[in-house]
Write a structure and sequence with these properties.
Blueprint: H1 2-24, E1 43-47, H2 52-60, E2 71-77, H3 81-99, E3 112-117, H4 130-145, H5 151-157, E4 178-181, H6 185-199, E5 210-214, H7 225-232, E6 238-241, H8 244-249, E7 253-254
Parallel strand pairs: 1-2, 1-4, 2-3, 4-5, 5-6, 6-7
Helix pairs in contact: 4-6
Length: 260
């Protein structure tokens, strides 16, 4: 009797988890993003790879509107000083561009942070130890996604002045509103972490943490391993490719060359 009840409970649990997964997977249950006003506090998380991936991502974002994505979080792998320095250069150029503009907003465009996570797999790392380093990377992804803002940034985001009075609408950036990635293996783990948070609806993340994956410009005829995992798993809200040949054989959205 006990064994039968246990088996029944296991089956019900499995079926419930299966349908819950189908519900939160973007590929199975596509939803439209919530409308946002320009200037409304919004957190954009950008996954940077290394070398070419980083240069390509920042090129894709060259027309980024800082008043639409008012806080940017950059994720880089450990030891990738190149990506960190490029992110700082990008933000400095963004701030200079906005200072030259006559438009004034309550939030300054220089609100950003750079987070470092362990590599999912190092170069020449044995495959035997890769699962352990991947789990470590995944756990770090959770910390990055749900990291609270610093006190100074929180005051700016909530519109509180030095006297503790509110100067704007209340907002927090505890979780990203949008995640953008373009190829590195770390991006897959960041997106897996997003799905797990949405699966359990942690702090109302079920309808947040939207994801966009842009396949590398170098991929003309076939998807990268990261792209295949994310597309065939229905794990991202939007999959974009940059070549017509790739769009014909896959379900990605063709947007032409996004790298400038």
């Amino acid at each position: 009797m006990t064994a039968s009840l246990t088996a029944t409970f296991a089956i019900v649990l499995f079926v419930s988890a299966f349908f819950r997964l189908l519900y939160i997977l973007p590929g199975c249950n596509p939803t439209k993003p919530r409308a946002r006003r320009r200037g409304q506090p919004t957190r954009l998380l950008i996954v940077l790879g290394s070398g070419g991936h980083t240069s390509e991502m920042l090129s894709i974002l060259h027309n980024l509107d800082p008043y639409l994505y008012t806080h940017r979080s950059y994720v880089v792998s450990s030891g990738d000083d190149f990506s960190s320095s490029k992110a700082i250069e990008f933000e400095n150029a963004l701030q200079a561009r906005c200072k030259a503009s006559t438009e004034t907003m309550a939030l300054a465009p220089s609100t950003y942070d750079i987070s470092v996570i362990p590599r999912a797999r190092k170069i020449h790392q044995p495959l035997l130890t890769t699962p352990f380093s991947s789990v470590r990377c995944l756990l770090s992804c959770f910390a990055i996604l749900r990291a609270p803002c610093s006190q100074q940034l929180s005051e700016r985001l909530t519109g509180s002045d030095d006297k503790g009075q509110s100067t704007g609408e209340s907002a927090v950036y505890t979780y990203p509103d949008l995640i953008v990635a373009n190829g590195p293996a770390t991006a897959v783990l960041v997106i897996v972490a997003c799905l797990l948070l949405r699966f359990f609806n942690v702090n109302g993340t079920q309808h947040r943490l939207r994801t966009i994956y842009v396949e590398s410009w170098a991929r003309v005829n076939s998807l990268s391993l990261s792209g295949r995992i994310l597309m065939h798993g229905g794990m991202v809200n939007r999959m974009m490719v940059q070549w017509e040949n790739l769009a014909r054989t896959n379900r990605g959205e063709i947007r032409g060359a996004l790298v400038h």
